[in-house]
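Suppose you are handed a protein chain with no further information: no name, no annotation, nothing but its sequence. What can you learn? This example shows the usual starting point.
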Amino acid sequence: MSEIQIKPTISEMEILQVLWKTGPSTVKEINAILNEKKLRGYTTTLKIMQIMAEKGLLEREAQGKVHIYKSVYSEDIIKSSVLHTMVDNVFEGAAMQLVIQTLGNYRPSGEEINELKALLAQFEENQK
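A reasonable first move is to predict its three-dimensional structure. Written in structure tokens, the prediction is:
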């Protein structure tokens, strides 16, 4: 699978997060969920979503008088693209530096530490 070239903005990522959790939704529904964290106007959300549709991030389907929006790309595809961009542009291609920086800034939970140990064990096993 080749990396997609669309790089969502922070506002676009917030909208995508809502769509991935709720599924296809109207602007009104998405705006209501976004307003739980930070107030923003309906027209602001509408404009961002219209731009996202033009950029190919969202599909829009008319159902009567309302438009239903859905994400074109899965959460994994977008997150992978954003991560590749960050590793390439912020960490000069050094993925391990991203991991070290992240673990240094955010304390992983016990469960996350166990997941990391399992992942490292899997990497070690694959190198044998």
